[in-house]
Amino acid sequence: MRPTLDVVPLPGHMAPQPPHSHPPPSTPQNQVLDLFERLREQHRTVATRTSALHSTCERLVAERSRLEELAGAIRSKLAYFDELEAVAAQVRRRARGQAPDCGEGLRE
Description:
Oligomer: single chain
Distance between the termini: 115 Å
Shape: rod-shaped
Number of domains: 1
Strand content: under 5%
Largest sheet: none
Mean pLDDT: 81
Low-confidence stretches: 104-108
Number of strands: 0
Helix content: 55-70%
């Protein structure tokens, strides 16, 4: 049989409360501790949300860079067609006006 130990509170400390006891009376110290605990929980919430926001921002910056690279690649491929349109328009103008260096075969 094991001997039982009685818990003796240290001076200035409260004795352990049984599980179904009433909460300690509301004192200014307890109110401050409650406020501090709420502040600590709010800090954890803000830290979690800030971390999530930073992760989202980093992901969006990476996606923006990828999209800018894609847009640049598309723009360079479209430059060929822009040049083609300009050349085709010039050929049509010369064909209509029968420029001296163009033959009869270029008429529309």
